[in-house]
Amino acid sequence: MIFLKAFVVGGLICVVGQLLIDWTKLTPARILVSFVVLGVILGGLGLYQPLVEWAGAGATVPLTGFGNTLVQGTKEALREDGALGIIKGPLSSASVGITVAMVSGLLVSFVSKPKSK
User: Fold this and answer.
1) Domain positions in the chain
2) Cβ burial, residue 110 (10 Å; 0-12/13-18/19+)
3) pLDDT by residue, tens only, the chain of 117 residues
């Protein structure tokens, strides 16, 4: 059942993104940034974590989940380290995801050929 929940929630988040691309003049970059900011806001208000607990990867994998991860790391680091946690928290909580993205991009760059526009 967790797979179905994850599929539905992740799919709905992606549908919202696709609808924004199709029906608005927003660029994909602005939509992606909006999703991260939405995740930060919902995570900061404590509204995103119940969705994560219910839907699992369907809520953590999309960009809204990345925003929530940044907030959760910041909250934890603030409790442990005080004001220094504002800087330390988001970097340490999202470091694995950022590293995987960078390494994946590097590996793809080795096997693909750039095309000029």
Assistant:
1) 2-110
2) exposed
3) 889 999 999 999 999 999 999 999 999 899 999 999 999 999 999 999 999 999 988 888 888 888 988 899 899 998 888 888 888 888 888 888 889 989 999 999 999 887 776
